[in-house]
Design brief:
With about 400 residues, the chain is α+β, with helices and mostly antiparallel strands. About 30% of the residues lie in helices and about 25% in strands. The strands form 6 sheets. A 7-stranded antiparallel β-sheet has the order 18-17-14-15-16-13-19. A 5-stranded parallel β-sheet has the order 7-2-1-11-21, with helices on one face. Helix 3 crosses helix 13. The longest helix has 16 residues. It is elongated and about 85 Å long. The protein starts with a strand and ends with a helix.
Length: about 400
């Protein structure tokens, strides 16, 4: 069978190699000068290739498309991904949060393994697919260089995040050519822009072991871990992950719990103890023991308490206000960063029109969609690449 794979990223390379091993003639088209360009930047250049968890834990980290992914992850799970790369000679290691990386810390090793996996495929680099047409006995595929005929076509073009890597949204264009519905692409795992004017003063400040709470659409979502202030908002693991949950909401309330390990009562006991031991100190001294220095003046300004006020002058009402602000420091939500800045793209080809077992279009026989072009997005930790590999495997094993 003659098969075209449009896109030489994680899902495209995985599917192409598997199909070539089944004695198909597989041609990969990629508009870049090398395959897997986006993989080079994943995991800060180290490539968080999957997560060392079971299938249910994977599904718990799928923000959109979890029900759809159940079939694919059961066909090819995280342990299968680890076995796959180890069979290609890649040594792996597991780090915090069960994140799986190549032991070499080089994303390029993952790319080389995937390209080696496609050793029997015909790879066309610097060749961009422009148009795909269904004919009676297959598909006509036109590129910037030539025209080709194939029996089956697999769209593995990715989303719209990091367009410099070639993710320009072409897959959505192809889907619409065949009358597929495309859920509006949006940024997923993107920084959050705030209206607060203190962001510039805090730019670069990293907070560890805090909780970030979002209230939206009558729901609440809180994540614990590390976050970072930018010149106009927040980023870091928990802010990026939270962005995926609030991506489709306009009314969002955000707040930080600086001391999630302590209840309000425990925090009050600590404050009372520190107050009694430092009655003649400035209140700034106490707050510096609770927060990073750069946050202290901003924190006190929100309370309308001057830093030089003595501890023995702090009223009970002010003390309770300090506790409340430590447990719920408000942030004024503005918007999410644009889709181009996202680690992955939310939205994409409507899952209702795709067979979850094989990734084949329900509208056009012989047309398949895999990877990030689909309306699936996950939290950070290797889950999005796992989605690419699982959908690719499901497609390759069930293509007919």
């Amino acid at each position: 069978m003659e098969i075209a794979v449009v896109g030489g990223g994680a899902s495209g390379l995985m599917a192409a190699g598997l199909l070539s091993q089944q004695n198909n003639n597989v041609t990969i088209f990629d508009g870049n000068d090398k395959c897997g360009k986006k993989i080079y930047i994943t995991g800060k250049g180290r490539c968080n290739v999957t997560n060392d968890c079971d299938n249910e834990q994977y599904l718990a980290n799928v923000v959109n498309g979890g029900k759809f992914m159940r079939s694919a992850i059961n066909q090819f799970g995280t342990l299968d991904t680890k076995d796959f790369f180890e069979s290609l000679g890649i040594k792996l290691k597991v780090e915090r949060g069960n994140r799986v990386f190549p032991a070499s810390d080089r994303a390029s090793d993952i790319i080389k393994a995937l390209v080696m996996h496609c050793n029997d495929c015909d790879i066309h680099l610097n060749e961009k697919v422009k148009f795909i047409k269904k004919v009676d006995d297959g598909f006509i595929l036109n590129t910037n260089l030539s025209s080709y005929k194939f029996d089956r076509v697999i769209i593995a073009t990715g989303g719209m995040s990091y367009p410099a890597t070639g993710s320009s949204g072409d897959g959505y264009k192809f889907a619409k050519m065949f009358n597929h519905n495309v859920i509006k692409p949006r940024g997923a795992l993107v920084p959050i822009e705030l209206k607060d004017d203190f962001c510039g003063e805090l730019a670069g400040l990293s907070l560890k072991n805090v909780s970030l709470l979002a209230e939206f659409d009558g729901k609440k979502k809180s994540l614990f871990g590390e976050m970072l202030f930018t010149h106009n908002g927040i980023s870091g693991p928990i802010a990026l992950s939270l962005s995926s949950f609030i991506a489709q909401s306009n009314e969002v309330k955000l707040s930080i719990d600086f001391k999630p390990a302590l209840s309000a009562n425990q925090l009050e006991e600590r404050l009372l103890r520190e107050f009694s031991e430092n009655l003649n100190k400035n209140i700034t001294f106490i707050i510096k023991g609770l927060l990073p220095n750069s946050l202290v003046p901003i924190f006190l300004a929100k309370l309308a308490i001057k830093g030089e006020v003595k501890v023995n002058s702090i009223t009970k009402q002010q003390r309770l206000a300090i506790i409340n602000l430590l447990k719920s420091f408000p942030l004024c939500f503005s918007k999410l960063y644009p889709v181009e800045t996202g680690i992955v793209t939310g939205g994409g080809v409507d899952l209702k029109q795709i067979n979850p077992k094989s990734m084949e279009s329900k509208l056009i026989e012989g047309l398949y969609f895999i990877g990030e072009v689909l309306d699936i997005d996950c939290l950070t930790g290797g889950f999005n690449l796992q989605t690419a590999f699982s959908t690719a495997y499901a497609c390759a094993m069930n293509l007919k």
